[in-house]
Every structure is written in structure tokens, then in C-alpha cells.
Amino acid sequence: MSPRILAALLVVSLIAYATSEENPTMRIEARDVVPTLPKRFGKPVYDLRSSRISVDGFLLGRELFYDQILSRDSSTSCGSCHQHFAAFGHVDHTLSHGIDGRIGKRNVPAIQNEIWSSTFMWDGGVTHMDLQPIAPITDTSEMGETLDRVIKKLSASTKYRRMFRSAFRTETITTYHMLKALSQFIALMVSADARYDRMMEHRDVYTDQEQRGLLAFRARCAACHREPLFTDGSYRNNGIGMDTALRDVGRFAITADPADSLKFKVPSLRNVDRTYPYMHDGRFRTLRAVLDHYGRGTFFGRSPDPALKSTVGMKEHEKKDILAFLLTLTDSTFLHDRRFVDPNIR
Amino acid sequence: MILRRCCCLLFLVPLLLRAGTTPIPIHFEHVVGERPLRFDTTMYQNEQHQPYAISMVRYYVSAIRLHCEGNEDVTSEKFFLVDASDSTTTTITLPRVPIGTYRSISFTIGVDSAHNCSGPQEGVLDPIRGMFWAWNTGYIFMKVEGTSPVSPSPGHLVEVHIGGFRQPYNNIARIELPIVEDPVRGIYVRVDVGAILQTLDLSSVSSITTPAAAAPITALYPRVFHIIRSTER
Lengths: 346, 233
Prior knowledge:
The complex is a heterodimer. Helices cover 34% and strands 1% of the residues of chain A. Chain A is built from 13 helices and two strands; from the N terminus they run H-H-H-H-H-H-H-H-H-E-H-E-H-H-H. The longest helix of chain A is centred in the first third of the chain and has 17 residues, at 3-19. Chain B has one domain (22-228). In chain B, 17% of the residues lie in helices and 42% in strands. Chain B is built from five helices and 14 strands. Chain B starts with a helix and ends in a 5-residue tail after the last strand. Classes of the chains: A mainly alpha, B alpha+beta. The A-B interface holds A 51, 121, 125-131, 134-135, 137-139, 146-148, 151, 174-176, 179-180, 253-254, 256 and B 117-122, 126-128, 130, 132, 134-137, 169, 210-212.
């Protein structure tokens, strides 16, 4: 047998091994569902004590996350838009895509470190992590389904009856347990092992350019993109001006306060290299375009955020350094975490 | 022997205590002005002479309290979802009310801020009941839906969704109504759904679905909720 054939056989058997039910590397054990809680991140907002994560709860949450059954026409799952390799954002689509080929209102946000967040969505309209999934499930241009029908479909499934029984010792499937299961999956989506994190923990060192980038970032950007989560969770008008098609007013739609017009939640910059395009309407395709916008200093809207002053006049070399620094926020451990892989991909 | 007799007496204590209580049913009767509420087929008119039909009336009643003359108030911490089309929901019974003189009943139309903020709830507060805003976390305290030929909305829909628990648009409303019967055996609350649509211009404002837009509607509640003195009905 030639070495080439041997190698091919090895690859084939490895793939078969990797996808078999008994594959030990894909098995989730109790130690796999302990959330990573770096001290630097502070105390999580989400109450992990009253919503404990179990292996069965996590597995159920993951199954639900990747199941199109949650959408009206069985076309769209949470994972359709929230792609693992894009830090659970969606690459390339400016706006979310949903059932019947419909286009949503906003750019798919990444899902990471959500247990440290007190509000969700670009406008912060959702105020509890457990309640977030109801929004995309029931949105007519996303999953377009009613909770009533979702629960009926899940209750009719032998697989889900079994999984809910194992996770919650319950015979009846309810919204409450469905949301708690999804949260058990989402709570573990912690990005804390980028090169930035390792450098902060003295496990890695920056190149000169990355180091300059960090300093420039701190001077120019960190007022809003605060370390270590790279967002301060606030709502701000970043001066890009209202989009012409959807005329999205942002946070104003939630609070009805004119001062909140055109404000959107500051997104985290973790894994930012993987979450293009950028801004709430996905109008910028590259990080370069984002930096150009901030550096140019032409801000639209009634009240661009005062903190934007620090970005104006960014020099060419600063932009290059900041770009190099932003790449150190890419967390391969998170992006390749086997626990988050769609269990039904064979 | 004596011990056994004492035990028997001990068992009697709760029975004796309970003897002084009575269940009090609270009936919600839905009307439009002077007419009983009929769904879908009956047309009503508001003060702008705009015709409309009602297809849904649902609201949360919570924190019921009977204010007692000279004794402790009777309170209920439960949440109730009244659906005017479902007679199993239009009577709320307080199971053990001590016999006494009550001067008023008060209740909340809505859901307190704690239950809006602490994640998913169960029972009548399950978001599956459709009384929940997914995009702007919080319960819809009251839903009145119908149609009007003058409504510009698709299907000529008229929808009033009242919710919002944060300032400045905190629409959690407390209703207090007098009780005049003594002793009280049942409480009849008349809910005039018409009062909600009475002053709206349905040709321009056919959809109220945000806390800010709903705020002026809660100001109409004194015209919506009335007590009927009718235990002898």
C-alpha cells in the first residue's frame, strides 16, 4: 500500500471517528459546562447561581439553537444567522436573513460574553438574556413563528420530550424551560482567550506594532469600546447618519426619548475581524472603512457622541497599528470550541 | 385519653378559624358604553362617530387588595389574565376572606416591574400567552383589538396594547373602587371597553403598541373600571 493511500485511509477513518456518536472528543461532560469567568471581566450580570448549567440543559440548548424547527417554515435556526466561525455573528450579510428569503432590519450581532451584558439587541430593547430568543423567533422577517406553535412542535417530538425530561425532569415542555436551555448554551459562549487576553495575563507578548496599536486604541477608541469586554454597554450615536432605506432610529424606538435618536449599543470588538460587515446596518465592509469614518470626523445626526472627538484626525500609521491590534482580539479558542459545533452536522 | 381529646381539639382549631371566612368572587363584566360587549359582529361607535368592532379584550389583574374597616386588609399576590371572551377567566375568586366590613377593593392592571425584569415567568405570565413585547422587554398589560372601516392599518385593524413599566412611561395602573355592601358577598366590576376607544381618532391612530403611546390611555382607566352594586342581582 502506498503511503498516499495509507494517508487517505487515515483521513477517512479520522473523519468517520470524529462524526460517530461515541466520539469521545465531542462528548460533553460536567467539566465542559462550567463557564469561564475571568476575574478581569468582573461579576457576570446573568445569575448563574439560580440558572445552573447542566450537561443535559446545555445539550438541549445547543440542539434548539441549531434546529430550524423554531422557525415557521423550518428554514431558519438561530445558528443560520449566528455562525460559530463568525463569533456567532454573520459574515457578509449586511442585514439578517429570515424565513421566505426575507431581509431583517439589522446586522446580525455577535453572541459572546453575553452573561456580562445587561441589555441585548442593537437598541437594548431586551433586558434579560433568557428573554432575548423570543425576539428573533417571533419577528416576522426572522423566524416568523409564534411561541405557541414552537411549543406545540417541540411537544410533538419524541426527541425533545426526552431531552426536556433529562434536562429539567419535566413532562411538559414550556417556554420557560426552552428559554432556560437556550441560555445554558449561550452562557458558555465566553471569548476570553484571544492574544489580547494572553498578553494581559503575561502568557504572550505583542509585536511593536500591536503594542503601538493598543496604545492608539486606548487613546482613540477605548472611551466606548472599554476593555476587557471592548464595550461599555452604552448607546451612542456614532455619527454615520440615518440609513436611507429603513430609517432606523435605534434606541429612540425603545425609550421614545428624542435624546436617544440614532443611538445604538456599542458592540464588542472581540473577534471583530470575523464579524464583518460593520455597524447596525452593515454599511461598512471593512475595518479600514470603519476607521476611515471615525478618523475623518464628518459626523451626521443631531447629536453625534461627544466621545467621537477622540477619534478625529487619526493618522495613517495609527490606523495601521490599530488594525494590527484589533486582529489580536480574534479568539481562536472560542471560534473553534468543539462544544459549540452544530451536533447534527455529519 | 385526655391526650387524644386534646389532639381532636387541635384539629378543630383551623376549622374554627376558617368558619369566619368566606370566598369572595370578583366578576368582571365587559360592556361598551351601555351595551354588553359582543365580539366581531356588533358595531359600536366612538365619540367621533367612527364605527368599530371588538375582537379581543385581555388584561392582567394583580395585587388585589380588599381594604378592611378596622381589620387587616386581604391581599392576593397572584396574577390573573382576564380574557373577556373566556368566561372561565372573568371571575376571580378570593378563597378565604374573613367576614368583615370592607370599604374598597383595589387591584393593579398590569404586571409589577419585578416580574417584568426577572426573566421568563410561568403560568399566566408565560410569554406564550401573547401578552408580551419581545422587542422591548415587558408585559402587555392590556390588549384591546378590533377593526374599524376608517382604520388605515392592514385589515382595518385597531390595536391598543398597553404596557411599559419604566419611567417616564410607567403604565402600571392601580384601580381603587368603593364597596358599599355589608357584608360583601360578591364584587361586580364593570369594564367599559368603549371608554378606551371613545376619544381616539381611529382614522389616524389605529395602532398603539409602545409604552409612550399607551401612556395617555391609562389616564382613561377611571372611565373604564366601575363598580356595580349588585350582589342582589
